[in-house]
Write a structure and sequence with these properties.
With about 325 residues, the protein is of the alpha/beta class. It contains eleven helices and eleven strands. Helix 4 crosses helix 11. Bound molecules: 5'-O-[(R)-(carboxyoxy)(hydroxy)phosphoryl]adenosine and zinc ion.
Length: about 325
């Protein structure tokens, strides 16, 4: 079964063809990131206009790369929410029109649930691998993106139950805001990740609220601690790399501890991590190590499927379609 996925929730315009919810035949992503960088964040009106300009060409390229004709698609899947309304509406209208014109079912997918599902995707080179057998449900999902930091208990692909989330900033949002404080540009995650690697011994540290007794997160305090530190040391100077490293240590240690604790509480043997922050090198290594020590297997998507992409949408849609048929 070939499903065409369309993802336009923010500044990425993506189309992808996924076979049987598992094998990614194509995944084309265009981004308007450069148009937003000078503003230090995403400008919704610009993002929406670019979505409109890119959607046709991105979809045509995804179909061509997959080598699948429009008539041979089994369904069209699209991100329904959450996201920027002006961006979402472009993808939704495009997908609805295509589904109507081709007389194929339209499957609407939640963007955050799709981020968790990204861990089950493989590319053509790994097509023999079935990650659903390696990481069978029920699992715990952790989504750490620019807009969300949530823990899910997933018993079936129709039942993603949120049982922990951020009370304020999302993890990626904290990275972006700290990068802005440090004048590192937008987005902040990749550059902070890279700068943090250069620090071995760090005499700087920041607290991150443990939110003890809950499954929730809070990242606005650590961001404020960074702001106050830079203000206090504005005259004497400070090491940007050490601040980046201390901030990252603080965020990663909370994510690692709370997500593994969540798996133990839910008696889940596997943890699926998704969203842009899942690309973070320290999170990937620390979480894998800490989880293994507690008998939990962790699955991170390949880098291409951490950021916003349509493959995760087409992949999850397969389970919605097959079980509703
Ligand atoms: O999932 P995503 O592409 O978009 C949303 O749905 O929000 O995530 C984007 C977020 C940004 O906040 C970005 O700074 C963060 O992911 N990010 C990272 C890294 N790469 C991207 N955060 C930490 N480390 C990274 N390597
Ligand atoms: Zn996302």
């Amino acid at each position: 079964m070939n499903i065409l996925g369309i993802e336009t929730s923010c500044d990425e315009t993506s189309a992808s063809v996924v076979r049987n919810g598992r094998v990614v035949l194509s995944n084309v992503v265009a981004t308007s990131l450069k148009d937003h960088q000078k503003f230090g964040g995403i400008i919704p009106e610009i993002a929406s206009r670019r979505q409109f300009e890119y959607i046709n060409i991105v979809t045509a390229r995804a179909m061509e790369t997959a080598g699948v004709a429009l008539k041979d698609l089994d369904a069209i899947a699209v991100t329904e929410s959450p996201g920027l309304i002006g961006s979402l509406v472009v993808g939704r209208t495009f997908a609805l029109s295509l589904s109507y014109a081709l007389n194929k079912p339209l499957i609407k997918v939640n963007h955050i649930e799709a981020h968790v599902y990204a861990g089950y995707l493989v590319d053509k080179t790994e097509s023999a691998r079935d990650l659903l057998l390696e990481f069978p449900l029920p699992v715990v999902g952790l989504v750490v993106s620019g807009g969300h930091s949530s823990l899910f208990h997933i018993r079936s692909f129709h039942s993603f139950r949120v049982f922990g989330q951020t009370r304020d900033d999302a993890a990626g949002e904290a990275y972006d805001k700290v990068a802005r404080i440090l004048n590192l540009g937008y987005p902040g995650g990749p550059v902070i990740d890279q700068l943090a690697q250069s620090v071995q011994d760090n005499d700087v540290s920041f607290p991150c609220a443990p939110m003890a007794g809950t499954n929730d997160f809070s990242f606005s305090g650590v961001k404020t601690a960074v702001l106050y530190y830079t203000q206090r040391h504005a005259k004497s100077g400070f090491s940007v790399n050490k601040v980046a490293n201390a901030f990252q240590e603080s965020v990663v240690s909370v994510l690692v501890r709370k997500s593994v604790d969540a798996c133990l509480k839910k008696k889940a043997h596997a943890l699926l991590v998704g969203g842009g922050v899942a690309a973070n090198s320290t999170l990937r290594s620390r979480l894998t190590e800490h989880a293994a020590a507690h008998g939990v297997k962790v699955r991170f998507p390949s880098m291409a499927f951490c950021m916003d992409n349509a493959a995760m949408v087409a992949g999850l849609a397969y389970h919605k379609k097959t079980s509703s048929c």
